[in-house]
């Protein structure tokens, strides 16, 4: 299979490598010429076999960058070709993009991608939305990217189904991280448990709360037992807000996920021990920026 890939950052670059390792021919474009195989979207489309269908996978930031990229591809591609949005777009954007591309006979698939910086090694969990025929056009790439066992779902045939599923996934992730973080803060606070890292490590086997997030938090506190190198500040990338808004729109009670989102807002007002743990987990699984204390006479690192 030949496929174009737009956006070669932390996720996109590793995805290109994983697809190539599986035998796919990948042509990548990025605004950073040091990462790109071609120098423009037009050149990327030209590099794909003309006998089609041509498939272009977009991995750029949600919102205007994704909309403008897909709009340009709509003018470059032809009837029967396909655009895949693998970024963190809101499902309502998928519906608009699918309608716009359909006017030119171009198919659209939305794909929620989870796996962070570990996806190259472990594979990516993929949540896909789109018509059966369109999903079939990109299936070899989906097979190359997903884990060996499981980790893939065609969530629905309507545009937005994949990103809606990924949005709810991320809302649950917020709540799980918050629970682990609050438990860590309590264990640290009470002068009774002598080895908090060992307690977390013991939970990784045999307990009902074992998970990859627990593994990552254990790794973080092994590196910095009291998380003293972090500020208790945690960003949110949008999906938590969208999840809570969807819950409001559909009258679904969402107490825990909403509280975990608001906790992140609180973290930007006061330095929170629990939020140090949330920040540590986000950095471990996704390479997300952390906020470190300022050195003497210097500014804080918001890297």
Question: What does this protein structure show overall?
Answer:
The chain is α/β, with parallel strands linked by helices and 303 residues long. It has two domains: 2-158, NAD(P)-binding Rossmann-like Domain (Rossmann fold), CATH 3.40.50.720; 167-286, N-(1-d-carboxylethyl)-l-norvaline Dehydrogenase, domain 2. Helix content is 49%, strand content 12%. It is built from twelve helices and seven strands. The protein has helices spanning 10-21, 41-47, 64-76, 91-102, 119-122, 132-145, 161-189, 196-202, 212-223, 239-249, 255-267, 273-286; strands at 2-6, 25-29, 55-58, 82-85, 107-114, 125-129, 152-156. Strands 2-1-3-4-5-6-7 form a seven-stranded mixed sheet, with helices on both faces. Helix 3 packs parallel to helix 4 and helix 7 (161-189) crosses helix 10. The chain is elongated.
Class by alpha and beta content: alpha/beta
Strand order of the largest sheet: 2-1-3-4-5-6-7
Rg (C-alpha, Å): 21 Å
Mean pLDDT: 92
Q: Architecture of the largest domain, according to CATH?
A: 3-Layer(aba) Sandwich
SSE ordering: EHEHEHEHEHEHEHHHHHH
| Name of the CATH superfamily of the largest domain | NAD(P)-binding Rossmann-like Domain
Distance between the termini: 37 Å
Instruction: Let me know the number of strands.
Output: 7
CATH class of the largest domain: Alpha Beta
What is the CATH topology assignment of the largest domain? Rossmann fold
Low-confidence region ranges: 294-303
């Amino acid at each position: 299979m030949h496929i174009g890939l737009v956006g070669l950052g932390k996720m996109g670059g590793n995805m290109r490598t994983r697809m190539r390792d599986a035998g796919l021919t990948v042509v990548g474009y990025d605004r950073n010429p040091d990462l790109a195989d071609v120098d423009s979207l037009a050149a990327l489309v030209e590099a794909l076999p003309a006998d089609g269908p041509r498939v272009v996978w977009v991995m750029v930031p949600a919102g205007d960058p994704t909309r403008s990229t897909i709009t340009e591809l709509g003018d470059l591609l032809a009837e029967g070709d396909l655009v895949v949005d693998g970024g963190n777009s809101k499902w309502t954007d998928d519906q608009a993009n699918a309608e716009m591309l359909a006017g030119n006979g171009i198919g659209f698939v939305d794909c929620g991608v989870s796996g962070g910086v570990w996806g190259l090694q472990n594979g990516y969990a993929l949540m896909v939305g789109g018509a059966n025929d369109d999903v079939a056009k990109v299936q070899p790439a989906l097979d190359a990217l997903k884990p060996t066992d499981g980790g893939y779902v065609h969530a629905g045939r309507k545009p937005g189904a994949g990103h809606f599923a990924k949005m709810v996934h991320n809302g649950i992730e917020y709540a799980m991280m918050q629970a682990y973080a609050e438990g860590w803060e309590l264990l640290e606070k009470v002068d009774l448990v002598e080895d908090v890292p060992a307690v977390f490590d013991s939970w990784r086997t045999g307990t009902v709360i074992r998970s990859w997030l627990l593994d990552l938090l254990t790794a973080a506190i092994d590196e910095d037992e009291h998380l003293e190198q972090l500020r208790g500040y945690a960003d949110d990338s949008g999906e938590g807000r969208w999840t809570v808004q969807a819950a409001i729109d559909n009258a679904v009670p969402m107490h825990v996920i909403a509280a975990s989102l608001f906790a992140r807002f609180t973290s930007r007002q006061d330095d929170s021990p629990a939020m140090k743990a949330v920040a540590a987990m986000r950095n471990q699984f996704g390479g997300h920026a952390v906020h470190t204390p300022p050195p003497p006479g210097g500014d804080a690192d918001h890297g």
